[in-house]
Each structure stands twice: as C-alpha cells, then as structure tokens.
Amino acid sequence: MSLLLDYNPFSGSTETFDYDESSGTITLKRTCDVTAIIDRNKELQNHTDGWVGQGRDMRLAASIPLDVAYKWLVEHGVSCWKKDHWPAVRRLLNSNEYRYLRTNHFYL
C-alpha cells in the first residue's frame, strides 16, 4: 500500500511512503514530472538565440529542474550551486543524456 506524504504543486514532485509487511521494508519514493520544463527548453532551443535581458547582455544556458539537480548531487556529487562544481555541471549539460536541459544549442 502506498501512502501520499507530500505533493508540491510548484515543482510537481510527489513523495510517497510504502511499507511491505512481508519483508518489513520501508520505501520512501520521490517522483517529479519535469515534462513542462523539458518542453519549454525544447521550445527555447528552436525559437530563440539564447540572449536575454533588457540589453540582451546575458545568455540563458539551461533550465535545470530541482529534482534533476538533486539527482546530480546524489549520484554524481555535483552541486549546481557551488562555483567549483561548474565544470562538472557543464560536462553534464553538454552530454546527450541531459541535452534537453539546455535552452539553446551552443555548448557551455
């Protein structure tokens, strides 16, 4: 039986609690539907040049869902918020696996 613990409408994430009586196993599961962010990124890739801001002086490189950032932290030890981790963030964003997190086709 699965019990809903939390739903965050802002991020679309859901946390559930499962208990298996036969084995005594407890499972906490977090899922997030990032389809809207990926679709927006694909739209930006196809219809913008990436330059943003009033003076077009900044370039939007990527839009990374919080759950993906958390996955990178847990699985790769990469924090999107630490400046010294930026080379690893760039490597992940330039990989084919995460290409739809980028908002344009230029490489970082």
Written overview of the protein:
The chain has 108 residues and is α+β, with helices and mostly antiparallel strands. It has 2 domains: 1-33; 34-108, no CATH class. 31% of the residues lie in helices and 25% in strands. It has helices at residues 35-47, 66-76, 86-94, and strands at 2-8, 13-20, 25-32, 51-52, 58-59. The strands form 2 sheets. Strands 1-2-3 form a 3-stranded antiparallel β-sheet, with no helix packed on it. The protein has a two-stranded antiparallel sheet with strand order 4-5. The radius of gyration is 17 Å and the shape is elongated.
Indicate the topology.
Layout: E1 2-8, E2 13-20, E3 25-32, H1 35-47, E4 51-52, E5 58-59, H2 66-76, H3 86-94
Antiparallel strand pairs: 1-2, 2-3, 4-5
Q: In percent, how helical is the residue content?
A: 25-40%
**Poorly predicted sequence stretches spanning 5 or more consecutive residues:** none
Our count of helices gives 3
The overall number of domains is 2
Distance between the termini: 45 Å
The largest sheet, given as strand count, sense and whether it forms a barrel, is: 3 strands, antiparallel
Feature tags:
alpha+beta; 5 strands; 31% helix; 3-stranded antiparallel sheet; 108 residues; 2 domains; 25% strand
Give a summary of the structure in a few sentences.
The chain is of the alpha+beta class and 108 residues long.
